Amino acid sequence: MTDITDAYFSNLIGRLETLKQVLAEPMVQAASVILDAARGDKRVYVFGTGHSHMLAEEVHYRAGGLAFTVPVLVGSAMLHEGAVISSVYERTQGLVRPMLERYGMQPGDVIIIASNSGVNAAPIEAADYAHEIGAKVIAITSIAYSAAIANGRRRLAEVADIVLDNGLPPGDAVLDLEGTGLRVGPVSTAVGVTVINAIFAEVASELSKSGDAPVYLSANMPGAAEINQKLVKKYRPRNPHL
Fold it and tell me: pTM for the whole thing?
């Protein structure tokens, strides 16, 4: 392993060890809100633009994942239809509401909004829309990043009901390339999926105590087809991506 590879692993592992302590209480709060939604047959939406949308895909139809999660996947705000234009969309006011309206969000639902920078129009509008509907908002964001670049703009950390601060520096990348002024090694995705999977694991554990944990199995595992088909049948009416 080279020095920089070792540095990346060490940096990421160190951050996760720190967050395990720092986020202990807000993760419990997030799990509690999601647990209440699950017991009320509500849905948990996951939304992010740019690379943050990968958290939404991470939880969707996932082996070991919960079936009541709904990814908010809007091509124009992701990367595959045009990375450059997606950066324009996520900063443009008024685009998120019609995107979210197709999902039929209801009072008592939860939306997890991932935005590392935490100041773009899209995540802020998503939080506002959810509150109008009567849904709870959980944010995964960097407070340090948004504080550094807000310049008077509203911040996701200020409008969410529960904030999971990923503790990342402005710009996301954590390793300096000596003599270049450049930084490499972004970690927001790795941190984000770890946090969200840990929370969902806690929720699943609590639901399993009453024998009602709607967890997908890997398609190659024995009995997976029957279990997954049953879950898809139940949750497809409110998940357009199943």
Answer: 0.94
